[in-house]
Amino acid sequence: MKQTVIKGLQTGCLTTWKLGKVIFPITLLVTILQFTPVLPWIIGLISPIMGIFGLSGDAAIPLVIGNALNLYAGIGAILSLDLTVKEVFILAMMLSFSHNLFVESTVAVKVGVKIWVVLAVRLGLAMMAGIAINLLWQGGGEMAQYGMIPEAAAQPDTWGAIVLLGLQKAVFGVLQLAMIVIPLMVMIQIAKDLKWLDAFSNAVAPATRFLGMKENTSMTLASGLLIGLAMGSAVMIQAVEEDGVSKRDVTLAFIFLVACHAVIEDTLIFIPLGIPVWPLLLIRVTTAVVLTIAVARLWGRPEQERRKEAV
Asked: Are 100 and 75 a contacting pair, CB within 8 Å?
């Protein structure tokens, strides 16, 4: 057991180092960009097209901030605006599919998934969701009533303070990663050595096969669903290196998880916005399942045709 724990710690530290090299500089850079004309310029650029999604021009603010940073930042921006329930629901749905693009997309590259696939899926789903809800939902015209509004943090007023804030957020991001990834890798190593992981894979094998993936992607999917895309990628990296997960299955798993990850946290944090969260969860899960199955079926056709030609 001692050797198992040591191996798990080593794997966890190595994975944290790999992901930390991505998360630290991007978090620092994006935090600094917040206080430059870059983000306001992007907001001004997309404001005119907000009407396509049934949103006012101001709604560009939480969309840009949420995609550049994270859901919490996007929600903070929503709380500063007077929006209808329908507008808030549309923003919540779009941000559920597309947020924290810089970090999570770069992490995808570390796993071996092409960045254009991640961006196309996440941005495409966000835009389609916004347009569909705007066209199909005729209600939600009343003003949203926010609850539990967080206290606004003091904004830095010098470049030194801005850089310090960026460094603090970057360090905290890596520490948060380490606090989750290292224990997770130890638990996974223990589960492997005690054959629990094999039992888990067998138990969920029908679900993974239904989605078009092999059984060895089960832990990756479970981790991503529970703890998120960036954290789940730690399991994915290990799976690719040690369990022989194919590039096809890694890509399919990531497609599923970009549509539906951290389902508990990313659903509950929208409650203070005063919107129905169960439809939010249902739409995400359904979209992830349908999209993954569709891609798996389309991806499998060339392989089946090659087999037929060989016969």
From this structure: no
Query: Using one digit for the tens of pLDDT, what is the confidence trace for 266-283?
Result: 888 888 888 888 999 999
What are the residues whose beta carbons fall under 8 Å from the beta carbon of 251, sequence distance 6 or more?
A: 113, 114, 117
Q: Tokens 């094998």 map to which residue?
A: 205
Q: How far apart are CA 95 and CA 104, in angstroms?
A: 13
Using CB atoms within 10 Å of the CB of residue 48, give its burial: 0 to 12 exposed, 13 to 18 middle, 19+ buried: exposed
106 Cβ contact partners less than 8 Å away, ≥ 6 residues apart: 22, 26, 115
Q: Are 6 and 189 in contact (CB under 8 A)?
A: no
What pLDDT, in 10s, does the model give residues 182-222? 887 788 778 778 877 677 667 777 888 899 988 778 777 77
pTM given for the model: 0.79
